[in-house]
Specification:
The protein is mainly α. The protein is about 80% helix and about 5% strand. It has seven helices and three strands, in the order E-H-H-E-E-H-H-H-H-H.
Length: about 180
């Protein structure tokens, strides 16, 4: 025979002390030597239990399940929601991987920043335009004084070659900027 105080017995059963007081008032506890006889009290509590109590618990669970199904959160729908969440996570991971790949390619120079490319191309186009617009002024006097067609052709070739070199230098700025 094990004897405990009412508070110890409540802790032993995992219930509140007020529930133990309620059991005592109903006569469900066996008191001995100023405390609760644990084994005898547990036996009496089991005898006094409502035999239909489990049926009540089952009915309540059934009602909760019905309400959950009416709310649209049934078994199939919760599985579908889990699939949607899983798909969302997969998409998020895919974009995270793509972002990491982009960062890597930027760092090793395989990928260029669009704004920087547009800036360099704009500068190169400005150089080409400026040089083309100045060709008549540069070549007019030289061509007027020259009667040999080969020399005139060489003058044009030199000017075009200078223009292409300047344009190439502008594009090289982009690659040097990325590798620096």
């Amino acid at each position: 025979m094990t004897i405990m105080s009412q508070a110890q017995f409540a802790k032993h059963l995992g219930v509140s002390p007020s529930y133990i007081t309620e059991l005592k008032n109903k006569g469900a506890l066996v008191m001995a030597e100023g405390g609760v006889d644990v084994e005898a009290s547990q036996e009496r509590i089991a005898q006094l239990k409502d035999p239909d109590k489990q049926g009540v618990a089952d009915r309540h669970q059934s009602n909760r399940d019905k309400k959950q199904n009416q709310d649209g959160l049934g078994q199939g729908e919760s599985e579908q929601a889990a699939k949607v969440i899983q798909q969302s996570r997969a998409v998020k991971e895919k974009y995270r991987a793509m972002s990491a790949k982009r960062d890597y390619e930027l760092s090793v120079g395989q990928l260029l920043v669009a704004d920087e490319v547009a800036y360099v191309i704009g500068n190169a186009a400005a150089v080409v335009r400026m040089r083309l617009e100045s060709l008549p002024d540069v070549l007019a006097a030289q061509c007027a004084a020259e009667t040999d067609e080969q020399k005139i052709r060489a003058l044009f070739y030199d000017q075009i070659e200078n223009l292409l070199t300047e344009m190439s230098n502008e594009f090289n700025k982009l690659s040097k900027h990325e590798s620096a």
